[in-house]
Amino acid sequence: MDDLAKRIIDAHGGLERWRSFKTVTAHLVQGGALWGLKGKAGVLDDTNVTVDLRREHASHAPFGDAGRKSSFTPDLVELQNPQGDTIEALPNPRASFAGHTLETPWSDLQLAYFAGIAMWTYLNMPFLLAEEGVESTAIGAWQEKGDTWQRLHVRFPAHIATHSTEQTLYVGDDGLLRRHDYDVEIAGDTPGAHYVSDYREVDGILFPTKRRIYPRQPDGQSLAEPLVVSIDLDHIALA
Question: Is the per-residue pLDDT at 1 higher than 90?
Fold first, then answer.
């Protein structure tokens, strides 16, 4: 693991402390243009998410209404009733996005997959940098809005389902993340610049509670609009 990756992990609470927990839950208030573009406005505007810290699994509840919740793993996505019985299922979900562009509508199960990989990645970051097969390399400084951030290039192994194989993290002098870049492969490799802020400490771990995602240009600069996705988190709990 790169020295910068170690510094980032330590700044967020440290790997030993992180590995003492099994799950993280949070209340989400979400907005932005993406949900309507995909034909899913309102489905996940106000929901709760639980992600596993030991395996790749996430669940959103409610999922559109109080009678449904989602269950995401890389190989299977389900919509379930409150008792956990399967209502709908999609095996091998990533294959269902073949040929998709940013404008292609999603089914509810595809939305559950996207939301699953997104929140599992976000809430496990930066501790994913210590996972087996994840490679990271410092790639130098970046100037933005009068600040200087260090950048870490990250490459994920095939067994981890996330937005894209290659991603970039931007970190401040305090070791905390400021920005997270990726290309959303399941939406035609759409490039995004994901800004994080408003950190809160929960049981010794620091979580950003404000997330804003904007389009990213070929030179790496982000556009001020449209706001693609907004995510505000509260009631964060580790268990």
Answer: no
